[in-house]
Amino acid sequence: MTSKAVVLGGALAALARIAAAAQPGAAEPVPAPMRDLVWGKLNFLHTTDTHGWHGGHLQEPQYSADWGDYVSFAEHMRKKADMDGVDLLLVDTGDRVEGNGLYDASSPKGKYYYDIYRQQDVDIICTGNHELYIASTADREHLHTVPNFKDKYIASNLDYIDTRSGERMPMAQRYRKFQTKNQKLDIVAFGFLFDFTGNANNTVVQPVRETVKEKWFQEAVREETDVFVVIGHVGVRMPEFQTIFREIRKLNPLTPILFFGGHVHIRDATAYDARSFAVASGRYFETIGWMSVDGELERAARSERSRLSFHRRYIDNNLLGLHHHTGLNATSFLTEHGRNVSAMITKARTELDLDYAFGCAPKTLWMSRSPYPGQNSIYSWIENEVLPDVAVNPRRKDVPRLAIVNTGSIRFDIFKGPFTRDTTYIVSPFLSKMTYIPDVPYAMARKVIKLLNNAGKITASSTPPDNRFMAIPEQLVIHESIINNEVSFASGDDLGGAPQKPLGEGAGQRPRLTEGYTTRDDIGNDGDDTVHLPVNFYVVPNCIQAEVDFPSDGEPETVDLVFMDFITPWVLIALRLLGGEYSREHVQLYVEGTFTELMAGWIEKSWPKRC
Ligand SMILES: *[C@@H]1O[C@H](CO)[C@@H](O)[C@H](O)[C@H]1NC(C)=O
Ligand SMILES: *[C@@H]1O[C@H](CO)[C@@H](O)[C@H](O)[C@H]1NC(C)=O
Ligand SMILES: *[C@@H]1O[C@H](CO)[C@@H](O)[C@H](O)[C@H]1NC(C)=O
């Protein structure tokens, strides 16, 4: 009797685990108060800047659903659209790669990712800058993702060069004209990349202001259509989208123009005019964006008096939220395809040994949720604990040094608990190494950090780029008032008048609020699908610096100036301003290995192995 009950209990637990989906070991999703989706005639789901997080956020309950769950979600949403006779389109705006072990840890990179990603039936897809930094990444994008999505992949201002033949060709078709499934609405869609210049030489990015003058573009904007859809790896407030908007609007005064943007890693929405709407859907697969349009969309029905209504939601990638929006539950939500995709991810994560733990983080270290300098700042930890140990060159170990790291080289918080192989790619996905200039007069070297941390540009000179590119990208676009207040938004209870429903069991019982996005955009403060408590946001400098092996009293005459290779142009300019004539020839490798490897090595040596 007893043993039978135990067996039964075991079987039920296993079933619950399968039903829960997400990845094994992922944090259980948390309930929270919800705002519903508003459907229109034309509806969209949008992902952007997923950066390899297709396994979900295993340590963060509110974003722990995976790409397989999104496949299930989209399947149910399409079914609902079919039943209601409306249309649903899926959009992705690039930067799908770099930033998570699922992409980065394999050799070649993306060995598992391309097959996992393609399982989602995306209707309009384009390229981000991260697909293009390294020639082999661009090659793989052209070899895998472009053919995987065929006529759904759009490259309005991007060419690819086949390095073997030297042939230059569009990365994919320049635009796409198609009809929606249920209402047969005509759509003309474009797929842009911002005016990016850091790409490897096997691709060519055409500045948007030139693209809009191309003959093909001028023909495309003269197509008879019900709606224009412009997707782009472009922030919705960047001039590139404005240029495209103006060019389309000139010839099409009444046509709805819908924009989907990304790149700047924030949730954002704005309207360029009464018939044009733009949404950006965050980063790292934390967010699934939602846009809907209602009103007279068919061009035959359109007049100057017809009004359109737009809605947007930023859906937390939380399994319970996905259940809520589909009206399903743990038993009914997962589709066979979604389940298969989750299984593909589990297999890839296991084969890549992503859960291998270098050590156990004794506490959570924040990038910007906790003040710098401070006990819980990841940057203080690097400055005080990591750099003194890893900024060591055996041949120069007796020379005092200043070690400078740009804060943008850290991309994510470290959570209390196992620091795994996956975590290394999440926290520091870059291949940057530590370089140095030997024997710089200390009086000069000590002033470099101050110049690097100036807001804006170091000098009036046009090179190098804006200083702020050394810091984290999120900070580039954070609203001034948020920065000055230190704390992000006023009140977590501010529901913006939107209908609010508790998510999860227990009717009438409102779930506890968790910390998370409390977005304000040009439409209002009711964009997030989940009501959250605000998260603190503290500004961090562009760069941090550790003094290593300094004399116990007095100042050194000269120091080795050690810095991340990525910031070399800024460091050289700063030195020049301080009267030091240094050039790239003076810059040498300081320590073997990437900064990420050095950090993982430090953790293996310094933190307990097990939690
Ligand atoms: C592109 O860069 C590679 C590596 O730096 C170089 O070998 C190649 O010649 C370059 N190709 C072109 C077309 O400039
Ligand atoms: C899920 O929903 C179905 C259909 O409404 C219902 O029969 C089932 O009991 C629900 N399961 C759970 C675990 O709530
Ligand atoms: C799911 O995987 C199983 C086993 O590999 C396969 O037979 C089935 O066709 C797959 N189903 C879908 C919808 O992908």
Considering the chains and any ligands shown, give keywords for the structure.
single chain; 611 residues; alpha/beta; Purple Acid Phosphatase, chain A, domain 2; 5'-nucleotidase,  domain 2; 2 domains; 6-stranded mixed beta sheet; globular; disordered N terminus; binds 2-acetamido-2-deoxy-beta-D-glucopyranose
Tell me about this structure:
By secondary structure, the protein is of the alpha/beta class. The protein has two domains: 6-351, Metallo-dependent phosphatases (Purple Acid Phosphatase, chain A, domain 2); 357-474 and 539-606, 5'-Nucleotidase, C-terminal domain (5'-nucleotidase,  domain 2). The chain has 18 helices and 23 strands. The strands form six sheets. The protein has a six-stranded mixed β-sheet, with helices on one face. A five-stranded mixed β-sheet has the order 4-3-2-14-15, with helices on one face. Strands 21-17-22-19-23 form a five-stranded mixed β-sheet. Helix 2 (67-84) runs parallel beside helix 9 (319-326), helix 2 runs antiparallel to helix 10 (336-351) and helix 12 packs across helix 18. The longest helix has 19 residues, at 2-20. The protein is globular and about 80 Å long. The model is unreliable at 1-19 and 478-508 (pLDDT under 50). Bound molecules: 2-acetamido-2-deoxy-beta-D-glucopyranose (3 copies). One 2-acetamido-2-deoxy-beta-D-glucopyranose (NAG) binds next to helix 10. One of its GO terms (molecular function) is hydrolase activity. Residues 494-525 are annotated as: Disordered.
